[in-house]
Amino acid sequence: MKTILVDAWNTFVTEKGTDYDLKKLLDTFPNPKIILTNASKQECITYGIVNMPYEVFSLEHNPNKTNKAYYLKMLSHFNLKPTEVVYFEHNSEAVNSASSVGIKTFPYKMEDGLDGLGIFLKNNLD
Fold this sequence. Notes:
It is built from five helices and seven strands. By secondary structure, the protein is of the alpha/beta class. It has a five-stranded parallel β-sheet with strand order 5-4-1-6-7, with helices on both faces. Helix 2 links the parallel strand 4 and strand 5. The longest helix has 11 residues, at 68-78. It starts with a strand and ends with a helix. The model has no long low-confidence stretch (mean pLDDT 97).
């Protein structure tokens, strides 16, 4: 069963708090979920990336998600292969970075709504 990698800031969490419509969509899938962020521990507190319903992973800007090394380290940390995960992310540089290591990635924009993301997840999960 594939793991869903979830972008943290400006996707799952915004200035308004957790996106509960997104959480509701994610919870329709039994797959494991991991929230990915660049944030340091203090930034997680500042931005509200605390008490999350899924595990949170960060390398605290060393490197950032725009660097493919982030994804290689994350995959190694969880003992996952690129083919065992799917990822959605708002930052196009991070999308490109994740894709460059073989992760199936969806460029998610909140303003586009959840329909496209739902289709992506349904079509790419085992």
